[in-house]
Amino acid sequence: MHVLYFHQHFSTPSGSTGTRSYEMAQRLIARGHSVTMVCGSGQMAQSGLSGPPAHGMRRGKVDGIEVIELCLPYSNYDSFLKRGWTFLLYAWRSVKLALSLEYDLLFATSTPLTAGIPGIVMKLFRKKPFVFEVRDLWPELPREMGVISNPAVLKAMDLLEWLSYHSADACIGLSPGIVRGITRRGIPESRVAMIPNGCDLELFKPAAEKGMAGIPGIGKDDFVAIFCGAHGIANGLDAVLDAARVLKRRDEKRIRLLFIGDGRLKPGLIERAAREGLDNCVFAKPVPKTQLTAITAAADVGLMILANVPAFYYGTSPNKFFDYIASGLPVLNNYPGWLAEIIGENGCGIAVPPGDPEAFADALVYLRDHAAQRAAMGTAARAIAEAKFDRDRLADHFVTFLEQTHAKRAGR
After folding, report:
1. E-strand spans in 9-129?
2. 42 has which bridge partners?
3. What pLDDT, on a 0 to 100 scale, did the predictor assign at position 208?
4. Are 115 and 7 within 8 A, CB to CB?
5. Strand-pair category, 331-333 with 301-304
6. Max Cα–Cα distance, the chain, nearest Å
7. Cα separation of 383 and 111, whole Å?
8. Which one, of 166, 181, 409, 221, lies nearest residue 317 by Cα?
9. Residues 308, 335: contact at Cβ < 8 Å?
């Protein structure tokens, strides 16, 4: 089976962002299939290709994957209009590619939601199997966050979501809420699989000893709570600075809050920390995933932070959570939902209410001062990573689901 795979933000492990599509493509290849990956040029992504482009794209083989990188630069720092235009350009050029390339199954993954456009169009012209993977519910998320309020734009996104789901032969949701969101649009449960992000158990591993060196602002005896990921509106990182202010007021000197990543709000977060004298906050540049593993393992706690938006509670599957638990880190989570339930049911961290910096600070102090309990939470985190979120097992499920979808479609 030849899979034509559309992911605008695809990255190999040499990039500083998620690698789900790379891992899934690798498992498809291991099972005897071939993959053509069509991606854009992301700020923190690395396609694995280099050299000058030809006709606005680069092409080549990367670790067995045939990669087509459309030279469409994307950055979280771009304006809403610029990002939207980049999404539409990627969709348009993807449609033109799909019309000319041979394939057996078309797979598209959001975000953005416009990733579904090649699949919708190809079902009309090529009538081959189409599987749509949903990483975030749109337009529910931007509507609840207040990022998009224009009724016409929201209506267009609502229609595009409906068309993507109903054009697909099958859908994959990354969380329980996403699966429910898909089935609410009239898609039978039998055509929807939940395959969350997973843990790279060989890449992220617990460290024998904690303690971080080499990052300015962090001492060898500091207690380090780490956040890895985008610094955008959705992440709600002001909540961490609110807790940092409480810790400063209490004169808690040994706790350091480490932010690794980038995004539009990062300069403002750095400015606020400087203005308020929050020297317990340390900001570092994004690092490749292959280097992030050692930093994560050296931390004491992983911070799972999101803005207090109800659509996030069951409608996201953040990579960072799975990296933390694979590293054997207790997780401090600041919003309710399915990840908070996993933490509570398995004793692998602490979930605090949203908008409560005192409770957030209390949790950090407790974790610092109770080494035995912290170690037990870390052990429980790694155990749940191995038992339920092993990337290899989830990737096998992914490939089998695509194979079954292709076989059903071919048998009609």
Report:
1. 34-42, 57-62, 65-74, 105-109
2. 74
3. 74
4. yes
5. parallel
6. 69
7. 30
8. 181
9. yes
AA letter at 345: E
Residue 385: partners with Cβ closer than 8 Å, 6 or more residues away: 199, 201, 322, 325, 326
111 preceded by cis ω (within 30°)?
A: yes
Q: Are 280 and 244 in contact (CB under 8 A)?
A: yes
Q: pLDDT digits over 317-334, tens only?
A: 999 999 999 999 999 999
- State how far the Cα of 403 lies from the Cα of 284, in Å rounded to an integer: 42
The β-bridge partners of 4 are 36, 106
Which pLDDT value is given to residue 325? 98
Neighbours of 86 (CB within 10 A): 21
Which domains are seen in the chain, by residue range?
Answer: 2-198+390-410 (3.40.50.2000), 223-388 (3.40.50.2000)
Other C-beta atoms within 10 Å of 288: how many?
16
pLDDT value of position 301: 97
Q: What is the pLDDT of residues 367-394, one digit of tens each?
A: 999 999 999 999 999 999 999 999 999 9
Tokens linked to 193? 């699989």
Q: 147, 188 in Cβ contact below 8 A?
A: no
CB 306 within 8 A of CB 312: yes
d(CA 409, CA 129): 6
- Render pLDDT for 124-143 as a digit per residue (tens, 0 to 9): 999 899 999 999 887 777 78
**Sheet holding 65-74: strands in order across?**
57-62, 65-74, 34-42, 2-6, 105-109, 130-134, 170-173, 192-194
Report which of 371, 110, 410, 129 is spatially closest to residue 254, judged by C-alpha positions.
371
